[in-house]
Amino acid sequence: MITDAPHIFMDISRLLSRARNPIPTGIDRVEYEYVSYLLKNEAHRLTFVAFHPVGCIGTLSTRAVCHFVDAMGQVWDGDRPLRDRLPRMAQRLTQSVLLSCWTMSRHQGDSIYLLVSHHHLTRPGPIEKFLSHHGSLFVPMVHDLIPLEFPEYARPGEPQRHARRMATVARLAASVIVPARAVAHSLAPYMKNRPADNHVHVVPHGLHLQLSSLSDAPVSRLPDDGRPYFVYLGTIEPRKNHLLLLNLWRAMVEEKGGAAPRLILVGRRGWENENILDMLERCPALQGNVLEYNDLSDPEVVSLLQGSQGLLFPSFSEGFGLPLVEAMVLGTPVVCSDIPVFHEVAGENAIYLDPTDGPAWRRAIDALLEKMPQGRTAVEAAGMNLFNWPRQVAAGIAVADETAAFFRSNGPRAS
């Protein structure tokens, strides 16, 4: 039990930067859930902060953040009228940061600066200044090291940017939260020169609780012709390996025609994806057989997964894989890449295949076509235990509290 719990400076820079995007990414969801949990359970020791582009970190009005986060949650749940208001709310909050940078008083007592996204880790100066001003300990979350491990899938310059992020973490962090043991293993070489007081803590991500119940929000734009379909959730980028599925679908359509299942792609268009987009837009066999949605609400995604033959997840690399968990909780079959993090997350509840073995994926797809979506059993242990968001956020906050307690007992960290 932690006594004299530290004050928490919770950074929401990622959410502010994502106000124009109505559909959350996995990292967006993580920051949102940490904010929501802290507001409900730790508001007595909470101050929200954000990064301003001029190069400073300042405090925010808790009341204004509450209104913003509430609106963002409603937008994600499908409230379209709020979409236009959300960016203006974010802009006002960001503008207020600059004023607070000049007027912010020093916090007295133990405090933690909590950053659960990678936002502004390439700018260590403002972080270091904030830590020095408040005497705070830095507890960041590292979601993955994919740009460094697989630079061929990253945007130009992203490996260099991510290397700077990891250098910031290695130099300034008092402790680090990661979502999986696989990420901790990848991070270890970057932390090897740190003193012994640094710790990396594995805290798996949680699951949006709305996914644990049936949805009544069908995807109205999905053709109502009874054809079975499969789903892939994820940004359209090379790392996600969409080309494997698109080539399989072209062959299936050429073989079966209208009897072939559909493939539903859910996710925004990312980067370095020209070959994927060329197939989506110009391949005749895919027209009407592969459908792309980039603005579905959370309830619509739930409905889509529930009616599908299965989730297909052939990604080459992931830091965690939230879509896999979402599908498991709904009882939707999962076929995914045979990579360590997926085994860590799904255990025996998925079919694992080499992401380059097209024939094996075709056999798995054909096998799932023989099963009906109705009557499935959700993976209870994943849905309401290990992956419960409040529980997982509480574990992350416990890391921050234990970090403060450690430094309180052992004195300041050597530079």
UniProtKB/TrEMBL annotation:
Q: Does this entry carry the keyword Transferase?
A: yes
Specify the superkingdom. Answer: Bacteria
Glycosyl transferase family domain: from which residue to which, for each copy?
223-373
Q: Which UniProt keywords apply?
A: Transferase
| Keyword Transferase attached | yes
Name the PANTHER family on file. Answer: GLYCOSYLTRANSFERASE WBBK-RELATED
Q: What is this protein called?
A: Glycosyltransferase family 4 protein
